Amino acid sequence: MKTRAFNLQVFLECLWHSIFAGAMIYLVVSGKYLSYVTPRMEPYLYFTAIVMLIWTCAGIYRLFYPQYRVRSAHCFVLILPILFLLLPHSSLSTADISNQYISGNAFTDLSGQSSNDITNKQVPSVNNSTNKFTDELTETIDSYIQPDVSDDGYIVDLPGLDEKNKTITVDDDYFYPWMSEIFLNMEKYDGYQISITGFVFKDPELMADNEFVPARLAMACCVADLMPLGMLCQYDKASELKLESWVTVEGIIHIGKYMDYDDPQITVTKVSPAEEVPGYIYPY
Predict the structure, then answer these.
(1) Which stretches of the chain score pLDDT less than 50?
(2) Helices (H), the chain
(3) What is the spatial distance between Cα 243 and Cα 193, in angstroms, rounded to a whole number?
């Protein structure tokens, strides 16, 4: 009986398709995919892995089909993305992204506008560098899974709120919901005491010497659109704070101005060192 020739090209195709599928599954299961894209991309990564596995299975039936000329160069196209995804790398910092941050007008153009109203209005751009972020935020904010909203338009059951004593302690896991709630209902929280943790961010072009933002990096779609998100703070010793150092800020919320928009800001009463909060925040 004549032995059928082993098809090296098909073998290499199956090998790299299966490796790529395995890499996708590993990134999703381990949660490491969140360093590159938002959680809403998870189904697409699984879909990609399934397609690759189907191609692998389909190729197995051709392993012993003879081929006159073996072409294998194209089989190595997947090597680069696999290496980029799996090799160790450091997290991005503000030095790797835009100097601008997302302020209150990324959520609303009217002070005190409720989160129910915002789904039907256009969100104004902070500047040209944030157009992509705010456009995507406007288009998909109605699909963002957030806490229940009361009839008055306020988010209810957010942890850290003490209405009796007018204090807010922003939990690290609820950073974005709290930013959205405060920005959309700033009159309600005017005069509240707040405690919030973030890294020190400064923009010398738009901020005074006594201003900074305790920020977190927000990802609207993927790592390419990371932007600092937080509340502008007034602090006499802001110039002494080290850039990108993590701090917990305590202060009083007031309504100020940022780029001609009403903006909830913090008059700082205390700044203390804090542990770094890993990961990004996701608007939706």
Answers:
(1) 1-2, 108-134, 136-154
(2) 8-30, 42-60, 79-86, 131-140, 175-184, 186-189
(3) 24
